[in-house]
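Objective 1b of the project was to move from sequence-level analysis to a structural picture of ligand recognition. The entry below was assembled by the postdoctoral researcher (A.K.) and checked by the PI before modelling. It contains the amino acid sequence of the target and the SMILES of the bound compound, magnesium ion.
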Amino acid sequence: MILTFDLDDVIFNMKPLALEAFKRAGVPYIKQTSWNIDEIYDKKVCDNLVDLWASDFLYTMPVLDKEIPYILNGLMSQRDMEVFFVTERRLKQPEKTFRQLRQAGINCSYAQVYDEEGLKSDILRDIGPDIHFDDSPNVIRGCLAKSVPVTMISNNSTLYNHYLRPHVEYYTSLRGALMKKGLLNRTK
Ligand SMILES: [Mg+2]
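Corresponding predicted holo structure:
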């Protein structure tokens, strides 16, 4: 079985980084209601976000659920399971993304990390997961169009994807999604 995971707002909590970007820009924090942040956020906020991604602030980003690293390590230890982490960040920095995962206690190898140019749904189609977990509306629509099995993570922090709820299976947390799919505490 092949499982693929998005990082931001699926495994990692983006909010501290977003709060810091607003703080540095000197404007009050507003929730992300649209995927296109250039449309809803002040340019100073967007510039700060990019700067923060490039900085070591990335390594301070907490996981959304402290059990998730253990759960992912358990899945990766199963002989019949292949796990990949596929992100579509504006800045392509796979070494940093890999280091971020390792520092969060996720024992992946560099070869399991995809952070590269190209449309993420195309990359996913080439990997061919049995399930991909994501919160990005663009990625989810791409997966639906390309018949990549996708499960959406959708909660109060992801207002930008609620419009897709009638069209795709979704759960409010990754742990909840894995539980429903029988992927927690699965025997080897
Ligand atoms: Mg994401």
